[in-house]
Write a structure and sequence with these properties.
The structure is a single chain. With about 240 residues, the protein is α/β, with parallel strands linked by helices. It folds into two domains: about 120 residues, Response regulator (Rossmann fold, 3-Layer(aba) Sandwich), CATH 3.40.50.2300; about 100 residues, Winged helix-like DNA-binding domain superfamily/Winged helix DNA-binding domain (Arc Repressor Mutant, subunit A, Orthogonal Bundle). The protein has eight helices and 13 strands. The strands form three sheets. The protein has a five-stranded parallel β-sheet with strand order 2-1-3-4-5, with helices on both faces. Helix 1 packs across helix 5 and helix 2 packs parallel to helix 3. The termini are far apart. The relative contact order is 0.11.
């Protein structure tokens, strides 16, 4: 049973969402402020955190940063309706998804299930256990690990899915709307979500993020992966071993 940490200072929201999550089969811990959230996460490590940005004491963005500093746990953030700057900042901080208030508890449960499912399954369009290689990058799709020049790179769920998708389609340009549908599974939404994730990926995998060579911008279209990639043996396999 997956454990969800719900962080919201509104007791009504917390009670309703907790009930929906419990009915969906999740074990739910709650916290009403940022400091309590960090203490609970340390005591009972969650599989996913639902995090309101507007919290007393320690703000939600700082909670997200501190959670990220201690390893990767998926985060679905709750933001005020129309607060685009909050959504972008939250995604830049490392949140995997967001839901705007007011929201349907059922929609939130679906988002939680989607993020957790993506955490444990290969990205869209990938079968088997291929390893994608190119430009110093090694992406173990099934293991959901990435390394550059032999050093592990820590990515969020959506960052990994986006990178794997683009690596599987080298030389093809995709619009932000298409990437939002193919990677996030959304047929509508704020395409700035894609922009933020591409920027974060560049910061993590490009030798020079200000002059990207892997994830390039195609003006008037969107983004393209400019590396030729090949499927290889799983990371750690002996390439000389016979079948």
């Amino acid at each position: 049973m997956a454990r969800v940490l719900l962080v919201d200072d509104d007791t009504t929201v917390s009670d309703v969402v907790s009930r929906y999550l419990s009915n969906a089969g999740f074990e739910v811990d709650t916290a009403a402020d940022g400091w309590a959230a960090l203490a609970t996460a340390e005591r009972r490590p969650p599989d996913l955190v639902v995090l309101d940005l507007m919290l007393p004491g320690l703000p939600g963005l700082e909670v997200c940063r501190r959670l990220r500093a201690h390893g990767h746990v998926p985060v679905v953030m709750l933001t005020a309706l129309g607060a685009e700057s909050d959504r972008i900042t939250g995604l830049e901080t490392g949140a995997d998804d967001y839901v705007t208030k007011p929201f349907s508890p059922r929609e939130l449960v679906l988002r939680v299930q989607s993020v957790l499912r993506r955490t444990h399954e290969p990205p869209p369009g990938v079968a088997g256990r291929p390893v994608l290689r190119g430009g110093g990058l090694v992406v173990d799709v099934a293991g959901r690990t990435v390394s550059r020049d032999g050093r592990e790179v820590s990515l969020t769920v959506r960052e990994f899915d986006l990178l794997a998708f683009l690596l599987r389609h080298p030389g093809e340009a995709f619009s932000r709307a298409v990437l939002l549908e193919r990677v996030w599974g959304w047929t509508y939404g704020d395409t700035s979500t894609v922009t933020v994730h591409v920027r974060r990926l560049r910061e993590k995998i490009e030798p020079d993020p200000t002059s990207p060579a892997v994830l390039t911008t195609v003006w008037g279209v969107g983004y393209r992966c400019d590396l030729a990639t090949v499927a290889g043996p799983a990371v750690g396999a002996d390439p000389a071993a016979g079948g």
